[in-house]
């Protein structure tokens, strides 16, 4: 009986491995499926009007997104950096999280028509059309989780997650 279960499990594993590799073979390496771009992005950045973004147009769109994220980061710092040191302490991050959570709940209460606890693309479009803005970044930056770089690009001197030679513990 145990042998039959083992062989069945091995057969199932082999079949699933084969089907996964067959799916990978359908898509050439290095190519990602193209996402459909929002019409407002195409309207703003598709300068040649071909309905897609070439490398230069994509770079312009990314630069614009980075600039907006930097503006939002500065706005979060201006609002929540109470000690003025240019970064958010744990208490300041918690305050920012609570404010964003309250903002999210208010948006859900106002625009979540199907009451599923999240905004569908249509509900989000309605909110944007009504003039609502959505934050492009989390207030804690990216350094609040283990192994993820902080706003300065590293976890800080001696911090966990910083590679050796770049402010990590091994220096």
TrEMBL record:
Keywords: Metal-binding, Repeat, Signal
Signal peptide per UniProt: 1-22
Annotated source species: Haloferula chungangensis
Name the record gives this protein: EF-hand domain-containing protein
Start and end residues of each EF-hand domain: 68-103
Domain of life (superkingdom): Bacteria
Gene3D superfamilies: EF-hand (1.10.238.10)
InterPro entries cross-referenced by the UniProt entry: EF-hand-dom_pair, EF_hand_dom
């Amino acid at each position: 009986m145990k042998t039959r279960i083992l062989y069945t499990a091995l057969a199932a594993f082999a079949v699933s491995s084969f089907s996964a590799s067959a799916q990978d073979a359908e898509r050439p390496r290095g190519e990602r499926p193209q996402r459909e771009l929002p019409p407002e992005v195409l309207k703003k950045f598709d300068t040649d009007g071909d309905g897609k973004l070439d490398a230069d147009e994509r770079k312009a769109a990314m630069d614009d997104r980075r600039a907006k994220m930097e503006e939002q980061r500065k706005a979060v710092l201006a609002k929540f950096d109470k000690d003025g040191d240019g970064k958010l302490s744990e208490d300041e991050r918690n305050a920012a999280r609570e404010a964003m959570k309250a903002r999210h709940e208010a948006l859900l209460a106002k625009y979540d028509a199907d009451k599923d606890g999240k905004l569908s693309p249509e509900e989000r479009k309605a909110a944007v059309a009504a003039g609502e803005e959505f934050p492009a970044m989390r207030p804690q930056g990216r350094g609040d989780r283990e192994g993820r770089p902080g706003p300065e690009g590293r976890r800080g001197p001696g911090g966990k997650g910083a590679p050796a030679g770049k402010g990590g513990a091994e220096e």
